[in-house]
Design a protein that fits this description.
Layout lengths: L1 E5 L11 H14 L4 E8 L3 E8 L2 H23 L11 E3 L4 H12 L1 H5 L41 H5 L1 H5 L5 H4 L17
Antiparallel strand pairs: 1-3, 1-4, 2-3
Length: about 190
């Protein structure tokens, strides 16, 4: 499922706010992985894109609600603010075929290119789950070489150790292997406008 969450607050991609958003996503991913999993994410200026797996509709609703509550609490606490954080309810789209999953992965992991004001060099978005993604054409996690990032971002110990990889690892065939039948994702790929 591709989920979009639109915030009333911007910029979520700032180096001040993003660590709180990422922490909320990691904690939400560890909450009930058998029922709801965040497979991939991308944080944009005023919205988030998630690719998630859920056991059923109830788990999906509960999981997305948990993500929304955690992010709102963490960011509101960080900024010492109160009030509504999300602009509206979340929007979800079911992904039923390998081609749809691949298109959603490109849309989520390369969404920063869609919103860029200028052409960006090939590389992965540091404000996404790109460093844990195992479907890049040009880079492998086990290569021992750091990932080519499109812009600099601070790395935390948990990211360097690779612990996040297991929290965000997909379980369904479609998200784990099926989409690869349509080809791996290139670091220069961009979603269609």
């Amino acid at each position: 499922m591709h989920v979009t969450l639109r915030a009333r607050l911007a910029p979520l991609r700032s180096q001040f706010v993003y660590p709180s958003v990422r922490l909320a996503l990691v904690r939400a991913a560890r909450r009930a992985p058998a029922q709801f999993r965040i497979v991939h994410y991308s944080v944009q200026r005023d919205h988030l894109h998630l690719v998630v797996e859920a056991a059923d509709k109830r788990s999906l609703s509960s999981g997305v609600r948990s993500v929304m509550i955690r992010i709102a609490r963490y960011v509101n606490d960080l900024l010492a603010r109160r009030g509504r954080f999300w602009a509206d309810r979340w929007h979800g789209r079911a992904l039923a075929s390998p081609r749809e999953v691949r298109a959603a992965l490109i849309y989520v992991l390369a969404n920063f290119r869609k919103h860029a004001r200028r052409a960006l060099p090939a590389g992965m978005d540091p404000y996404s789950s790109g460093p844990w993604f195992d479907g890049w054409r040009e880079w492998r996690q086990d290569s021992g070489v750091p990932p080519p990032l499109a812009e600099p971002a601070p790395w935390e110990e948990v990211e360097r150790t690779g612990a996040c990889r297991s929290w965000f690892a997909p379980r369904t065939w479609l998200a784990r292997v099926g989409w690869k039948r349509c080809g791996l994702v290139g670091m220069g790929d961009a979603p269609m406008r």
